[in-house]
Amino acid sequence: MSDEFDYDVVVVGGGPAGLTAALYTTRLGLDTAVFDRGGGRAAMMRDTHNVVGVTEETSGAEFLRTAREQVESYGADYERTFVEDVSARDGGNGSGLEEGDEGAGEAGFRVVAGDGEYAVRRVVLATGFSDRRPDPPLPPTGRGLHYCLHCDAYMFVDEPVYVMGAGDSAAYVAMIMLNFTDRVDVLTRGDEPTWSEDAATMLENHPVGVVHEEITGMNKDGDGWLESFEFADGTTREYRGGFPMYGSEYNADLADGLDLERTEGGTIEVDDHGRTSRDGVYAVGDLTPGHNQIPVAMGEGAKAGIAIHMDLRPFPRSTEEIERLGPVDESDVPAISPELLATAVAHEGHAAGPRTEVDAEEAAADD
């Protein structure tokens, strides 16, 4: 990393996708920071599902805490802060380097976060989206109120289930839930249905109940799980859990500030490695198209981290670069900052085994 930049990579967002991207860029020798405002869908999880090697009793908060500690152990910086702005850096060739120098022409980006302003080479946006919550009364999230069918449908096999909403998504999710249980209702809560004629025809031909009355009350068991809803017509209907289908809002202010291309559905347009329509900016996780699942998000983070490494690594120097810059000198290698070098040789995962702090400092000084 040149002295002109504070970091090689800044990841905005500390969910599974962002932390995985940071894990890869850090372990691949890039000085990385994660700026995380906190919260997010993963943080709300009471239990973790569909993540191989992570058991059910692991909460989202515990999952993320372990991930943060892991990323920091390799030398990445993590800060709980709000990123106010990301913009292209101005001036000359943007890098502060002379033409012909290695890295010349790379402007990088200016990241404003909290009380700080940082010059960075690459930015990863992992800001996700926020689910639109229906009006109360509602059961607790994870105890009868659920936002991920692929994660939580298994919990309601052979149990009574509701789906809230009046659009196509509510109709389709209700019919999908028939794969898991024979007791499914759509709760429109007094809203006029807006689902399509096709969806209406399909609903009429599936054993799904449609309840139009508004919810007036709720009952929970001793563990806080939903037992039933009370309705304006005086009826009480038993449900163990369900899914509100009111859409979501993408946390894309930074993406829009960078004028990134979006899909018709509102997600950020990316290639298979998270590259956006703007060079040097990547997007991963729920902000991008695809299934909103932790393993998928982690895979996207990993691919973006590897792509950034391949983009920024100085070696091997190409024949054109050798002609322009000359051969690689022994003093140029290894291409890793003294800070990351010292952390690596002291880490328990190092091939030679963890060295003492003094040994690590001496190794960095020898570089």
From TrEMBL:
<protein>
    <submittedName>
        <fullName>NAD(P)/FAD-dependent oxidoreductase</fullName>
    </submittedName>
</protein>
<dbReference type="GO" id="GO:0016491">
    <property type="term" value="F:oxidoreductase activity"/>
</dbReference>
<dbReference type="Pfam" id="PF07992">
    <property type="entry name" value="Pyr_redox_2"/>
</dbReference>
<dbReference type="InterPro" id="IPR023753">
    <property type="entry name" value="FAD/NAD-binding_dom"/>
</dbReference>
<feature type="region of interest" description="Disordered">
    <location>
        <begin position="348"/>
        <end position="367"/>
    </location>
</feature>
<feature type="domain" description="FAD/NAD(P)-binding">
    <location>
        <begin position="7"/>
        <end position="301"/>
    </location>
</feature>
<keyword id="KW-0285">Flavoprotein</keyword>
<dbReference type="InterPro" id="IPR050097">
    <property type="entry name" value="Ferredoxin-NADP_redctase_2"/>
</dbReference>
<keyword id="KW-0560">Oxidoreductase</keyword>
<dbReference type="InterPro" id="IPR036188">
    <property type="entry name" value="FAD/NAD-bd_sf"/>
</dbReference>
